[in-house]
Fold:
Amino acid sequence: MSEPAESVVEDLRARCRAALGSWDERLDAVIERDPGYAETFVALAEAAAAGPLGAHAKTLVLLACDAAMTYRNRESLPARIQGALDAGVPPEGVLEVLELVSVLGIHALNVGLSIALAEYPDGERPESPPARQAPVRERFERLRGYWDAGWQPVLAHLPGFLDRYTDFSAASGRHGVLDAKTRELVLIAIDAASTHLYAPGIRIHVRNARAHGATFGEIVQVFQLISLLGVESCLLGVPLLDAEAARPPAH
Structure:
């Protein structure tokens, strides 16, 4: 395996930083093993970055996916955080993203409750009275800024839990750094990431983002950016391949 020229390595690093706002040092091993492949990835990153989203939104979308519970990419998260800070996002903005993406855990209830309801007859799944549901829905709409019919089963059967979730899911907004559109783009990203692919959430947050002024191009660029996460197979595997290949053959 011949090593690429240092100028090639530095050029790819600079191009990736310019496109995505950060550099994952694990890409160094990929460049050394297969610089041609690394070039195609950087070119793909440049294509994904060449859209209408500003630097803040791009770095926060990528940060959100790395921090989300379905990905938890500890290796690249420090660079993503530094990239957001370098792009001018204040620490409170990074914290707002981290708190915002913690809502992803609720999908266990969204999916699980619908299955449980289908398996139990009406008599075994009592609903709360409408008078109990109404103020909970009103608070959700006021604090979250929307309502979707997908929340109705939770409201009908677990209004108290939904009320507490409303507080939890709205808590990140108190930092006031992210505008409503950017928050929705972040939520689209974590729902659409290949590690989650939660279609109901994607639809809700695309609709919300559009209502807050997001263009079709901005939403599609989110999908392009998070498609880059597939390179993780090489970021994880190539260093392990190098280590195993360097071992002396077993006798």
Q: What stands out?
A: The chain has a mean pLDDT of 95. Residues 6-106+169-245 form a domain with the AhpD-like fold (CATH 1.20.1290.10). The CA atoms of residues 114 and 150 lie 10 Å apart. The longest helix spans residues 6-20.
